Amino acid sequence: MISNRVNRVLDVNINRAREGLRVLEDAARFIINNRETTATLRSCRHALDQSVRKIYPQLLAARNSGDDLGRTFKESKRKNLQGLIIANFKRVEEAVRVLEEFAKLISARQGGIFKSIRFEMYQAEKKLMKYQAQRKYKSKAQRHKVLSIRHRVKRK
How many Cα neighbours within 13 Å face the side chain of 93? Predict the structure, then answer.
């Protein structure tokens, strides 16, 4: 039997990972418009949900958000979309790593499930950041082209 304290750690990190995945999924879907990464993030979120579905009642029973010391931690402002994306990828990766380690108290197989999700996150982060950088470059190139055309038109 897993202790209530371990279940609390699992619950907190499942919630942290799912919340971060939802933020990333929405950014990939609605702002960046990247279908592939959106699908990957959604799949990982669903895999996390499935991985704890059987023990969810124990996790919920262990939840004690009213006394969580983290409630008083100061939040920091995000400078831009890239900062928001990076922060949420790190949040998910760290939470899934904690899940991976604590899940090994339950079974090696369960730890392996979280490990595969963690590595999927590393790949998704790389792909999304590369895609975002390419979009940013294209956008700058288009602005430069428009300004160049305006400059030529003014000179005539």
Answer: 14
**What's the pLDDT tens digit per position in 48-82?**
999 999 999 999 999 999 888 888 888 888 899 99
d(CA 97, CA 40): 18
Residue 96 scores a pLDDT above 90: yes
Are 62 and 4 a contacting pair, CB within 8 Å? yes
- Give how far Cα 122 sits from Cα of 43, 80, 137, Å: 14, 21, 23
Residues 114-145: pLDDT tens digits? 999 999 999 999 999 988 888 765 555 555 55
CA 126 vs CA 69, 72, 86, 109, 119: distances in Å? 32, 32, 10, 26, 11
Can you give the residue ranges of every domain in the chain? 4-68+77-155
